[in-house]
Amino acid sequence: MNPDKKSIEAAKILIDNSPIEDFEGFSSSEMRYLIITPFSQDSPFQINKKISNSILDQIPIFNQIEFLLNKINEVGELKLTATGSLPTTLVKEIYNLRLIKDEDIESGITKLYAETSSQPVQLTRLITEMAGFTKKRYNRLSLTKTCRDKLVKNNRQVIFETIFSTFAFKFNWGYYDGYESQAAGQMGFPFSLFLLSKYGDQERLDSFYSEKYLRAFPGLIDEFYDNLSWARDASKSFNSCYSIRTFDRFLKYFNLITIRTEGRLYHDSKKFIKKTAIFDDVMTFDN
Q1: Dihedral sign, CA of 34, 37, 43, 49?
Q2: Structural domain for 143, as ranges
Q3: What is the model's pLDDT at position 210?
Q4: Residue 162 lies in a domain
Q5: Is residue 47 part of a domain?
Q6: Which of 16, 63, 182, 213 is a plausible cystine mate for 29, CB 3.0–4.6 Å?
Q7: Which of 137, 167, 197 is the last residue of a domain?
Q8: What does the pLDDT look like over 102-130, one tens digit per residue?
């Protein structure tokens, strides 16, 4: 006798909700949440609802953005340069907070001047706009009413949640690199966070995480094969892309990890990752 429709549907649900080894115990259903709607109520990933001010004070990108928002709030409208960038004096003021350092500036390769000379400063402005905190009119930047109300009410929790979700889910992680893949690292980013919550108590190579991430999303390696160069190592390229985007330009900005490197340049260097003391104060997982 053929199984009826209800039996088939029940079997599908059972399969969807079964833990999968390559997903570190998450089910297919749970992984869909992590990929498509990571900030929904039903997602196994959640930002903690009561993050203390002492924790928020330790998050560099949050404090950098908060500084910019307060500056705009003070003047009412911030006059931008002819190219629509932050004025040079404010660029220097933000960078001199020393919250996020730019390697090229610190090493002397480039000099701090215009907004475009510092990726962390430019990122600060981009996130404020993408998050709906600011509006631009006649080449002047001002706060939206919603953001102004949040500042007045000192609602740092909501501001942080908006910054985090905008950075993680809306901002294009590939904006500052030359990798062709747009999805690597950013797609299913909470899975990387879960790996850190599970394994991050001790230092591990960045490749430890990239390999587990790739095991969950194996199709992403296809974007790293270069048919024009037989010598290119797709696995190394993938690891480099994943590591830069996930660790150097995301989690480090939120002070959720520490990075320790050994060796010189790219050929013999090793990168070790460990979660910080505030990691578990910021997020939780139901797995």
Answers
A1: positive
A2: 53-167
A3: 97
A4: yes
A5: no
A6: 16
A7: 167
A8: 888 998 888 998 999 999 999 999 999 99
